[in-house]
Design brief:
The structure holds 2 protein chains of 2 kinds. By secondary structure, chain A is mainly beta. Helices cover 0% and strands 54% of the residues of chain A. Classes of the chains: A mainly beta, B mainly beta.
């Protein structure tokens, strides 16, 4: 059974609006979380991270929120741009050991 | 700075054939990983190597073997390819407390 789940396979958002991508995990021992972005025919690239000692981390237009009690994290992109259209993966690990990835959410930002 | 280099980029195999996927990193990272990406399944860990000389199974190791040849190189071998191994394979490397750097992937088709 997958330990990290992204229940929305796709998301469509208008340019300039907020994109919210969600991720749930089952292992309460996970303490480090990453978001990756992937374009077709390329490897995933690191976007933003958060450790369990925080509940929010911000980097420009990207903010990740962590709710440990709900075992839920989300990625907010504000404002969304057409170049943000990609597949987004969340990943989680315990003690920065091997990471478990979700199945990905395909974001389409419409001009 | 090449980062993580995977070869080949594309490969078609017949059922029962063998092949080795090569991966090399030039970032002096200790840890290296092999993932496969399948539609709706995200990235699943096949094998990883926490340091030179060590290898461990991930989530889906059956049908694969690995070799950590030295600190730079981590190869993945399919001894007898099966259609279920048709996938996109990604190699990654990391250093403690930093995210993964991924290669651009190998698209493998087994017919």
């Amino acid at each position: 059974d997958q330990q990290v789940k992204q229940n929305s396979p796709s998301l469509s958002v208008q340019e300039g609006r907020i994109s919210i991508l969600n991720c749930d995990y089952t292992n309460s021992m996970f303490d480090y979380f990453l978001w990756y972005k992937k374009y077709p025919a390329e490897g995933p690239t690191f976007l933003i991270s958060i450790s369990s000692i925080k509940d929010k981390n911000e980097d420009g237009r990207f903010t990740v929120f962590l709710n440990k009690s709900a075992k839920h994290l989300s990625l907010h992109i504000v404002p969304s741009q057409p170049g943000d259209s990609a597949v987004y993966f969340c990943a989680a690990s315990e003690n920065f050991n091997k990471f478990y990835f979700g199945s990905g959410t395909k974001l389409n930002v419409k001009p | 700075n090449a980062g993580v280099t995977q070869t080949p980029k594309f490969q078609v195999l017949k059922t029962g054939q063998s092949m080795t996927l090569q991966c090399a990193q030039d970032m002096n990272h200790n840890s290296m990983y092999w993932y496969r990406q399948d539609p709706g399944m995200g990235l699943r860990l096949i094998y990883y190597s926490a340091s030179e000389g060590t290898t461990d199974k991930g989530e889906v190791p059956n049908g694969y073997n690995v070799s950590r040849l030295n600190k730079r190189e981590f190869s993945l071998r399919l001894e007898s390819a099966a259609p279920s191994q048709t996938s996109v394979y990604f190699c990654a490397s990391s250093e403690q407390n930093y995210g993964y750097t991924f290669g651009s992937g190998t698209r493998l088709t087994v017919v």
